[in-house]
Structure formats: structure tokens, C-alpha cells
Amino acid sequence: MSESTTTLAKVYSPNEVEAKWYKYWEENNLFHAEVNPQKKPYTIVIPPPNVTGVLHMGHILNNTLQDAFIRYKRMMGFEACWIPGTDHAGIATQNVVEKSLMKEGKTRHDLGREKFLERVWQWKERYGGTIIKQLRTLGCSCDWERERFTMDENLSVAVKEVFVRMFDDGLIYRGKYIVNWCPNDHTAISDDEVNYSMQQGKLYYIKYPIEGTTEFAVVATTRPETMLGDVAIAVNPQDERYKRWIGKHATLPLVGRKIPIIADEYVDKEFGTGMVKITPAHDPNDYWIGQRHSLPQVNIFDISAKLNDEAPAKYRGMDRYDARKLVLSDLEAQGLLVKVDDHTNNIGRCYRCDTVIEPYLSDQWFVKMKPLAEPALKVVMDGTIKFYPERWMNVYEHWMTNIRDWCISRQLWWGHRIPVWYCVGDEQCLLECKQPIVSRTAPEKCPHCGSTNLRQDEDVLDTWFSSWLWTFSVHDWPQHEKLGKAKDLAYFYPTDTLVTAPDIIFFWVARMIMAGLRFGPSFTGSDDLKKNVPFKDVYFTSLVRDAQGRKMSKSLGNSPEPIDLIAEYGADAVRFTILYLAPLGQDIFYSKEKNEIGRNFANKIWNAGRFLLMNRDQIGEAPKTTEFNVDHLDLADRWILSRFHSTAFELQKAMDEYEINKVTKVVYDFFWHDYCDWYVEMIKSRLYSDEPNDAKQAVISRALDIYDAALRMLHPIMPFVTEELWQHIRQRKLLETIMRAEMAEPDGKLIDKNVEEEMTFVQSVIESLRNIRGEMSIAPSKEISLVVNLSDERRAESVERYSGYLKRLARVSSLSFLKDSSRPKLAASAVVQGEELFVPLEGLIDIEVEKARLKKEIDRVSGLLKSGQAKLNNSSFVDKAPKDVVEKEREKLNNFGETLGKLERSYAALS
């Protein structure tokens, strides 16, 4: 698609341009990737957002990063495939639908399981695509033909296959266990789904009468209501204070049950009195003590954390916190509450609804994690999988070496139902009928007794049990051969880069590595870890904070709506800004106003494009024979070609090292400063001069060549404005698009650091002369004379060679060199890289103003000099800093000293 090059609008309107180009890309299937033996694949699977979700700033960062990597690799010649999808989000989605039912005065139980699930699917079809539409608005170049949902039929097949295989291998088991129970959602949640925070609470000291004595055991507890489920008191076997009581019994207050006093190394002699109550059904540590000592388990709570029939009658049916108040009141009335101290607790809350978690003993399904963790730890620690930034390796290692079994069952209706059935036949059933029937499909009858009276497990699997298979289940494993996806799986697996937030390093990243290593050999046919890992690199995103450093949240009202930002600034501006502010591994301090950075940048390159096109339409363009026109080159041309290729090298290196923040800055500096501010200004004088037309055509052609290549460098970050401009600057073929154009390759032969250094010096001279003009209020129409005192002969040659630019860009009418140490009287001065510039001011300025300016500059440089001297006088800095850093500081100090001397001489000259 190409448009007339004369129709570029005066003002860039992002909303119109973005909608047009996304529609064009998608309608022409330009995001789609196919198995292509001629190309190397590059694959990303999207971290599937919850189907209930809408874009937030974390999504903007994460998905802009993924899109930048995909677009870059696509332009680098890879078959780039970005597989999108959404997660069914068990608890979150069920909660949304249940809330809508509440408005109708109903619960899910009123509908029954089947009808309720129909309502959830209806909700999903109606509202579940919101975040996918928003990703399109952001410009995400996902392969939408490959979009998946974690409850798709083929992904459900993968979930069942994995469950059955792991059960058969002894890696999945069912047992009673202390789990993190959410009394609000009525489901177990994994350790990783509990959010902990310090909270001010109380420590209660309670007396337990010791049988056969008049003494009391005093225990300290933060949860007195759970004492109703106590089955023992424990002390440390090394605690001399209580050795005489080990083996005796105490009476449980308010209940009357006799409980033993036991010894266990786990007890902390320094906590409270050194004696602790043991409640195996309601504390994970007590659970393990109970296992070691064969203690009974007394569960006093129901699924809503209300006291059940195991508690004394007066407390039954009470909420746990109401029961606490009554228990404390009764203890105090009996003289058994010794004292209450302030105490800080680490409280766990449900990550979904913020309800305080209840440790709860129940029947659950678990995955044995240690056998899976060992190889998954190895591939990260040996560098097979690389983390960016590397510091997350330490977090990963700590968690993997202290891993606990994964509770995978959830007491929900929405999700992958556990593929387990139980025989509920008559009393004549064999003992084996008590064993679960684990099957990929619904069994018709009991394999032991033949009964057809079977009941499926009511629970569903943890949402993460489907998403940990994501990298290969999206290709329809294990049915990939049957469904014709074997080539896709072989070509696009393993994936290359995973972009994710660090807070799901355990939920998802670690488990995906485990799943890839466990099941990869079944489709790669290899035991080679490198072929079975699910990805090669993991990029952990930054945390987006507000300008005050606070985490963004709806409750604080400090999280802008991304779709509103896109409507106001344009997707390109939002994309560029978030990446510009995101150094690898550091938090982002974000505010709405910062999107001006991206918007202003888009406008800058738009205006440069309009200038080039207007002049090209008037002058014409030289025939294109090479990537960059090299006819009629002058110094500015050689400089911009060198800067472009230097920039291209920096960009490639930064991309390869995932320094996307550096990528934005490199391209920004080149496009804004080198190209627009300097090069375009420099070529104006040639375009408007009396040079031959073929020379002017070469100039405009070269400028457009470089502009074209720079747009391609910028495209992965700002896809819309670059496509619009790229289509205008040259006539394009049908379906030709910048997103499939080749990324410009850096050419070392065109990099000339000497030319770059020379131009930097001349630019500094021009900027200094402009500053003098501004500070001295010299009218732009007035020409100035320039007198220079140069200590370096090469600099003198540079100034002479570039004198034409000094005349055009700084309005210099004459240039002369000092031949001795004398200097012009009544002249404004500046020092550039140690060289002196003088502008005679007689008749142009107020001498007193110039003296004041020099005095201010003297004070500034003096401050820098003192600061540098202090740093180098600090032995700690000199001893610890790298040698090259210390040398640079010494060099800077010398330059400050020389500059200060010259400034003081200039001041003295005016005085």
C-alpha cells in the first residue's frame, strides 16, 4: 500500500493513522508466521492475561516490549511468531459471574454446576475479548490466527494428559494437608498466591493447668480461638526450665481435654515463654510437629472459618474473630488469661479478595515438586536459560531449593475439572473401589467392580496447571501429529524470549521450565535440555510506579487508564514513553505528562518528513543505485552517515542485550539531535544554494535514504508513525510494508570517528556562538566576527573546513585566528573543549552584561573544580573506583582548571 507522497498532512493525527494501519496489517495477514525452513524462527508466547482483565500500565510495558522484540526480529529476517491468548482465570472469572448473579438475587448453587458454567461461557464470549481488542489498539503484532484460550478443547486435552501421566508416574497424589484456605472464595490457594504483610496484633499468654500439680504451663499465642483444637503443648528438649514436665499432661482450658506435653527441636526457647500450643489442623508448623509425634488432628473450622461441631457448643457457628473475643472473655473470667502484649504479625491474605488466609486441613491434590525442581534449577544456574537482569537468578535459586509441594486442587466450578472419578457402587464393592479412577476420558464403569455408578471429583485444577503448559499446548500437544501441528511445534519450540513480571517467577516461569523439561522429550524426541527448555531468555519487566514512587493502584487513584492515554497521545507516544523510562531491572517513575516525550518525538520526525518531501517534490530525486546515495558528498554527509552506522551498531548491541531503554535513547538522540537538529539544518543551505540541480537531487536523495533507514530503526518502538511516513517517502509495491522491510545493517566502513569528533567540535562552537548571541541579545539579522585561539592544529583545520557551516548556522561574517597570546579587547568569549572563541562586541552589546555572564560561568566552573578535587581527595573513592573512572575524573579536573583560567582571563580583559 502506497500513497501519493504529496499528501502528508501538515499535522500528525495519531488516532486516524493508527486505526488505518492496524486494519491494513491485520486484513492482509501480515502478522502471521508459517514454518519456513529458509528462515530461523523467533518465537514469543504472550503471558496470557486474565480473560476478565483490561489493560493497565504493567500490560502496556510488557506487551510493548514483546512487540518491539517481535517487530525487530521480523525485520532482521527471522520468521517471527508472537502467539497470543487469554487465561480462564478460575477464581477471578467465577467471582465476576457470581457477583452478577447476586444482583439477580441468586447464587451459583441456585443454577447448579452445568447452568452456572453456561453463564460463565456466555460472559466470556460477551466480555472476555476486551483486553484483546485493547492489545490491538496498542499495536501488538500478534499472530491472531494462533490465538488460544486456556480452556480451549485442545488445551484441556493437554491438561488431562499431563495430570494422568504425572499421576501414573507418582508425581500427583491426594492427601490431607494443611493448605492456605480462603474462607471467602471457599478454595485452597498455593503458597505463591498468598500476599504477606506485617500487621500490628496481640500476643496472648494463657495458663494450662498441669495434671497432678498446682502448676500451670503458660503458652503465648497470636490466635487464642484455635486453642479449642489444641492436641499438645511443646517445649524445646534443651530448655532446662521445662524438662521436668516432658511426658506429663495438661488440661485444655474451656474444653477439658487432656493433652500431652512433648519435646520438639522446632520450638524457639526465646518466643513467648518457650512453651507453645500445638494445633495440627490449623497451623502448618504444628502440622509437621503433629506428624512427627503422631498427634491427632482436630479441625474446629468449617469452609467459611466458622466454628464447627468439634468446638464446644457455645462457640459453634461463630466467625473466627467473634469466637476469639468470647474465648478471651471466658479465659479472663476463669483467671487463665495471664497478660496481653503488642505483637507484630506477618499476615497472609488471599491475592484475589484480600481475605485473611486460614491454615486449613483438608483433602487436596498435590504435585511433588522436588523431582521437577532439580533439573529446572540446573538449566538456569548453568546458563541454558538466561535471566535479564541476572539478579533474579538468586531469587529463583532460593525458591527452588526450598520448594514445597504444589496444591493443585481448587474448590471452584470454573476451570479444568480434575480427571478423577470415584466408584459409589453398593456395599459389595471391593476395597479397590475406594481408589480414585484417573482417566483421560470419562470411564463408563468401575474397573474393579463394574459399577456404572461413578462420581467425578468436584474440584478443578489451579489455573496455573494449564498455563504452565502454555509454550507447547498452544501447538495442540499432545494431539499435534493428529491435528497437523507437528511441524509447527518442532519449528516454533522452544520459544526464544519470555517477557514477564517478576512477581510470577514462581507461579509461572519456574513451572513452565519444569513442564518443558518433563514433557519436552515426548515431542522433541531428545533428552537434550537445550531442546526441551520452554524458552532461552527471560526478560523481567520493571515495576511501574507513580512520580512519587508509589505502586500504581486503583485505590490510590494514581494509575492512568492506558486506553485514555492512547486516545490523547497516540499509541506510538505511549509505547515510546514507557520504554524510554524503563531501564532494565529498575522501577519506572511514570506520570501522564511524560507522554509528551513520545508525542513531541513523533511530531519532530513528522515535520522532518514534510520538509524532505516538499523539497524532493520541487527538486526531484537522483536515481537510486545504492542503499545510501554517495554522490556530491560533503563533510556533513560523511558525518551523518558515520553517525547513522554508529547508531545502528549501538542499537543492535542494545537489542541483543535487552537494553530496550538504551535502544529508545540511541534512536531518539540520532533522529532528534543528529538528523533533525543538525543535518537537516545543514543541508538547507545546499538545497537553497546555486549548486547544480543534480547535486541538490543527490543531497535530497541521501537525506531520504537515511530518513528511510532511521524510520526502520524506530519502527519496532513506534510502528504506526513510521509506517505512515515510510509509505509516503517512496513509491511502494502492493503489500509492501515497513514491518517486513529489512532492518538497516551497520556498515563499519562508513564509520569515521575522526569526522564525528570534528563535527562535535564544530557543533559545540556553533552552540557557543548561539549562546553568546542569546545572552548578549545580538539580533539574529546581525552578523558577527569570530576570532579563535586554537592550541591544536587539527582543530584549526576543522574550523576552516567547516567555516561554511559557521557562516550559515551562526551568522559568522568573518573568521580569523590569533597569532599570538593577545586577544581582542571588549570581546565576548567562550571555551570549547579547551579552545578559546572571541566575538568582538564593540557596538553590539553592553559590556557590563558580558562581565556578569563571565562571573556566573566562573562561579559554576569553580564549583565543579572543587567538587572534583574533593572526590579525588577521597581515598575511599580512589581506592575502590575502577582505574579508568579515576583517570576520567583526573582528566575532567584538568579541563576544569584550564577552562577556569581562560574564563578568568576573559573577565580580566573586559575589566
What tags apply to this protein structure?
four-stranded mixed β-sheet; alpha/beta; 29 strands; four-stranded antiparallel β-sheet; 30 helices; 911 residues
**Sheet with most strands:** 4 strands, antiparallel
Ranges where pLDDT stays below 50 over 5 or more residues in a row are 1-5
| Tally of DSSP β-strands | 29
Q: Give the strand line-up of the largest sheet.
A: 6-5-14-16
Q: How large is the share of residues in beta strands? A: 15-25%
Shape: globular
Number of DSSP helical runs: 30
State the distance separating the first and last CA atoms: 67 Å
Class based on secondary structure composition and strand pairing:
alpha/beta
- Provide the helix percentage: 40-55%
Q: What is the mean pLDDT?
A: 91
Radius of gyration: 36 Å
Describe this entry's structure for a reader.
The protein is α/β, with parallel strands linked by helices. 44% of the residues lie in helices and 16% in strands. It is built from 30 helices and 29 strands. The strands form 10 sheets. Strands 6-5-14-16 form a 4-stranded antiparallel beta sheet. A 4-stranded mixed beta sheet has the order 10-11-9-12, with helices on one face. α28 (847-872) packs antiparallel against α30. The longest helix is centred in the C-terminal third of the chain and has 28 residues, at 660-687. Mean pLDDT is 91; it is low at 1-5.
